[in-house]
Amino acid sequence: MMLLSVKETEKMDDIDAMFTDLLGEMNTLSQSLMASADRTEVDSALQTERTFSIGFTDLNESLKELEDHDLDALMADLASRSTTSECSLPTYQQAGNCADNEMAASALPPPSNSAESSGGLQTSEPQTKSDKIKLALEKLKEAKVRKLIVKVLMSDGSSKILMVDERQTVREVLDMLFEKTHCDCSIDWSLCETNPELQIERGFEDHEHIVEPLSSWTRLSENKMYFVSRPQKYVMFTNPQVFYMWKKKKECSSKINEQAKQLLLQEHFGGSTLIVPDLEGTLYLKEDAKKVWKPRYFVLRASGIYYVPKGKTKSSSDLVCFVHFEKFNIYNTKHFKLKYRAPTDFCFMLKHPCIQKESDYIKFLCCDDEHTLLLWVNSIRIAKYGTTLYKNYQAAMKRAHPSASHKDRYNSQVNTQQAPPQTTNVEDYPHEAPPDFIPPPPPGHTQV
């Protein structure tokens, strides 16, 4: 046996110590990763628990406000999902379960009548609404779905309770509200969110999935959702000359006919590429964390908003990017002249949808007048959403068209019924023979 020297022994001891330290670090790292994974699962579970309802203090309250047929639809959908998840087990597991069930069934004696009656009571469907709510609460906690029960406020102060899921778009929710409120299907109807803390509001676009923006609200948020008519929702398509002929005088753009409007839409939205309004002008920018507004010259492009630095020209090489549209939404504001000492009350905000409180990442811009605000807000929407916005408008027009045609048919029928009967003179129709039967004159009438 070969003996090791003292140096080699010390060297081996150092290697053992290093290896022991490495194992300890790996063990500590693995434990921290497991703990963080557990926290992530708990946080996701809490987030799922929070996003069951919007506009209520708890889920139980929202389920009580839900109408009976919507609650039944929720129960049926959750039952179908649970059945689907059970059927999606691996084949070998299903076969094993079936074999076990058959063996257990063959080993047990035939059930008695009392057992059948008790089983029937256990499997009976809940009859009362409270029973349905309890069962729905249990199934919602088990199901990994993004369903929301939301309260939509009306302009008259009333509200409607809706159940929506992550697959539904704003357009589909609007159709649901049309059926519940029996209002006209005008293209101006919108779903809007309001944030009282920031004093802002935004109209949801028809193609957005309604659950996604609502899920960004905080648990104790005072945000609300309204069903209101917004005449400026599709103003860029009903009056495209306002945005694509804004440099001309208002008198010239106001006299444009419908045929010219359609040509403008075809030119700017019907081609392979979208043409963004070449909007530019001076806006007031709020300085970070200060109530100071400084004028800057901004230029709108398809990718975002750019500004001209001091001492530079409006050439593309000198422009500096102010904000990109991918991560920002545009919001209308209220009373910013009082809150932030803005030059006017015609302001708008650009921020990420997840930002729900005051933040340095929020952009504030102020316009000189209402018309300038209209140009910038809707031109930014055109640049951000592109042809999708035009498709939303076309879908809204198709939805509103049957209602309009129905009204026209109804009015024509009413006018026909109310029109006075016309007298017919035989002399007006010389090619037709007079009728065979002529009624006798009324009593008391003397013939001349």
From TrEMBL:
SMART domains reported in the protein's UniProt record: PH, RA
Biased composition (Pro residues): 436-448
InterPro entries attached to this UniProt entry: GRB/APBB1IP, PH-like_dom_sf, PH_APBB1IP, PH_domain, RA_dom, Ubiquitin-like_domsf
Domain named Ras-associating: residues: 146-233
UniProt-listed Gene3D superfamilies: Phosphatidylinositol 3-kinase Catalytic Subunit, Chain A, domain 1 (3.10.20.90), Pleckstrin-homology domain (PH domain)/Phosphotyrosine-binding domain (PTB) (2.30.29.30)
Gene from which the chain derives: LOC104945562
Naturally occurring in which organism (per UniProt): Notothenia coriiceps
Annotated CDD domains: PH_APBB1IP (cd01259)
UniProt cross-references to PROSITE patterns, sorted A to Z: PH_DOMAIN (PS50003), RA (PS50200)
Keyword line: Cell membrane, Cytoplasm, Cytoskeleton, Membrane
Compartments in which it is found: Cell membrane; Cytoplasm, Cytoskeleton
Ranges that cross the membrane: none
Name listed for the protein in its UniProt record: Amyloid beta A4 precursor protein-binding family B member 1-interacting protein
Gene Ontology BP annotations: signal transduction
Cellular component terms (Gene Ontology): cytoskeleton; cytosol; plasma membrane
UniProt topology in membrane: Peripheral membrane protein
Span of domain PH: 276-385
Annotated Polar residues bias: 411-426
Residue numbers spanned by region Disordered: 103-129, 401-448
Superkingdom to which the source organism belongs: Eukaryota
Family: Belongs to the MRL family.
Pfam family, one: RA_2
